[in-house]
Amino acid sequence: MSKIIGLTGGIGSGKTTVANHFHDNYHIDIVDADIVAREVVEPGSEGLAAIANQFGDSVLNEDGTLNRTHLRELVFSNPSNKQWIDNLLHPMIRQRMQQQLKMATSPYCLLVIPLMVENGLQSMAERVLVVDVSPDTQIKRTLARDGVSKQQVQSILKAQATREQRLAIADDIINNDIENGHLAEKIAELHRKYLALCH
């Protein structure tokens, strides 16, 4: 089985850019918690059926897919709804991630979990790589990318782990404040380091 390197970072830190670089340039397999989270609520899935059963058909779009906007409202308006969803989906997501990790064929694989610290999932990885940027950079990038209000970005930042909490679990750190010029060099260096650890 491949060695598992956990990859995390706050919103707007460039996690996806870093993960894609490993994948595109070094053919490293990626297991991404966000993608898995969408898979466990696809039409026909056990997850989606349970959600519709709990909250009624209003959480479904006409085409049978999950109405995420409506579900988000239900979750944010009521902590017990959030608890229920987390209890349902977290074990499913974790199980699906473990299955995908077992199927990885590259020498090491990246387990990308945005909320690794918040959900205490660093134990799923043998090493943790944190993509680190300043809060200012996070706000700027998220505003540019998602077209949301500054208040919304700040409330997302508040809900996520602090920079210090993330750095506390890091074995390796990529500082991604600078323009992507040095990113390729840093990733190449980590790639060599990770390959050495696999032997």
From TrEMBL:
InterPro entries: Depp_CoAkinase (IPR001977), P-loop_NTPase (IPR027417). Catalyzes the phosphorylation of the 3'-hydroxyl group of dephosphocoenzyme A to form coenzyme A. This is Dephospho-CoA kinase. Belongs to the CoaE family. The gene is coaE. One of its GO terms (biological process) is coenzyme A biosynthetic process. The lineage of its organism: Bacteria, Pseudomonadati, Pseudomonadota, Gammaproteobacteria, Vibrionales. Its main location: cytoplasm. ATP binds at G12, S13, G14, K15, T16, T17. GO terms for cellular component: cytoplasm. Keywords: ATP-binding, Coenzyme A biosynthesis, Cytoplasm, Kinase, Nucleotide-binding, Transferase. PROSITE patterns: DPCK. One of its GO terms (molecular function) is ATP binding. It is found in: Cytoplasm. Its EC number is 2.7.1.24. It catalyses: 3'-dephospho-CoA + ATP = ADP + CoA + H(+). It holds the Pfam family CoaE. Pathway: Cofactor biosynthesis; coenzyme A biosynthesis; CoA from (R)-pantothenate: step 5/5. SUPFAM superfamilies: P-loop containing nucleoside triphosphate hydrolases.
